[in-house]
């Protein structure tokens, strides 16, 4: 049975923490690479825009001899967390809490939001960061009962949000 993405990410993260240090530097070749936490400013593309992110506590592997820095899975997780915070995007935990509060399973929510269940699963695992548009849609869906009802009612599909779609025309 295949592992879900959260299990794979956790396995990789655990493997990264168990790595025997020091390891050999890919730049200078010396066995001087150790775990470190650094402050770094990086640029990250999201939704077709470039964002400058300042990360005060980025976990990396750093060579004590030449200063070469390499990123690990924990680095990517931290970068994504800073991106979400800077853009005010819902976190996987917040999405999961909203689904639980509304007593919705992933499949029901995915159908209502118009995304593949696999996409919602990736948002929940942290493997994919939702676009701002999808974040706004999820916020409206979670917060507004009328929006939820419009998205979830089969008889409203394709008509919700269309002016005059719910009215019958009078015969002339």
Keywords:
Ubiquitin-like (UB roll), alpha+beta
Q: Would you write up a description of this structure?
A:
The chain is an alpha+beta fold. It has two domains: 12-87, Ubiquitin-like (UB roll) (Roll), CATH 3.10.20; 92-156. The chain has seven helices and three strands. A three-stranded antiparallel beta sheet has the order 1-2-3. A hairpin with a 5-residue loop joins β2 (49-63) and β3. α4 (106-113) crosses α5 (117-125). It is elongated, with a radius of gyration of 22 Å. The model has no long low-confidence stretch (mean pLDDT 88).
How are the elements arranged and paired?
Elements lengths: L4 H14 L14 E14 L2 E15 L5 E3 L1 H15 L4 H10 L4 H8 L3 H9 L6 H12 L1 H8 L20
Antiparallel strand pairs: 1-2, 2-3
Brief summary of the model shown:
It is built from 7 helices and 3 strands; from the N terminus they run H-E-E-E-H-H-H-H-H-H. With 172 residues, the chain is of the alpha+beta class.
> What ranges have pLDDT less than 50 throughout 5 or more consecutive residues?
none
How many structural domains does the protein architecture include?
Answer: 2
Number of strands: 3
Shape-level CATH architecture of the largest domain: Roll
- Please state roughly what percent of the residues sit in beta strands, choosing from under 5%, 5-15%, 15-25%, 25-35%, 35-45% or over 45%: 15-25%
The major pleated sheet works out as:
3 strands, antiparallel
Oligomer: single chain
- Along the chain, the helix and strand elements come as HEEEHHHHHH
What is the CA-CA span between the terminal residues? 63 Å
Per DSSP, the total helix count is 7
Query: What is the C-level CATH assignment of the largest domain?
Result: Alpha Beta
What is the CA-based Rg, rounded? 22 Å
Please state the overall shape, judged from the principal axes of the Cα atoms: elongated
Structural class: alpha+beta
**Main sheet: which strands, in order across?**
1-2-3
Averaging pLDDT over every residue, what do you get? 88
Q: What's the CATH topology name of the largest domain? A: Ubiquitin-like (UB roll)
Helical content class: 40-55%
């Amino acid at each position: 049975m295949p592992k879900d993405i959260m299990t794979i990410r956790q396995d990789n993260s655990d493997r990264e923490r168990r790595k025997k240090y020091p390891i050999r530097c890919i730049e200078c070749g010396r066995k001087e690479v150790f775990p470190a936490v650094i402050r770094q400013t990086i640029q990250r593309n999201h939704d077709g825009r470039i964002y400058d992110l300042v990360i005060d506590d980025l976990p990396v592997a750093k060579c004590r001899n030449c200063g070469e820095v390499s990123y690990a899975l924990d680095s990517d997780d931290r970068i994504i967390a800073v991106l979400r915070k800077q853009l005010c995007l819902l976190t996987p935990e917040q999405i999961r809490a909203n689904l639980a509060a509304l007593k919705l399973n992933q499949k029901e929510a995915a159908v209502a939001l118009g995304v593949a269940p696999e996409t919602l699963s990736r948002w929940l695992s942290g493997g994919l960061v939702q676009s701002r548009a999808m974040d706004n849609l999820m916020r409206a869906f979670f917060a507004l009962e009328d929006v939820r009802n419009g998205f979830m009612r089969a008889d409203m599909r394709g008509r919700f949000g269309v002016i005059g779609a719910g009215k019958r025309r009078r015969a002339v």
